Amino acid sequence: MCLILLAWQAHPDYPLVVAANRDEFFARPTAVAAFWPDAPQVLAGRDLEAGGTWLGVSREQRFAALTNYRDGTGQLPGARSRGALVADFLAGRESPQAYIETVGERASDYSGFNLFVGDAEHLAYCSNRDEGKVRWLAPGIYGLSNHLLDTPWPKLASAKAAFAAALQTLPLAAPFFTLLADREIVADSHLPETGVPLAWERILSAVFVSSEHYGTRASTLLSRRRDGLITLQERSFGAGATPIGEACARFQSSLMLTGV
Question: Is the entire prediction scored with pTM above 0.90?
Answer without folding.
Answer: yes
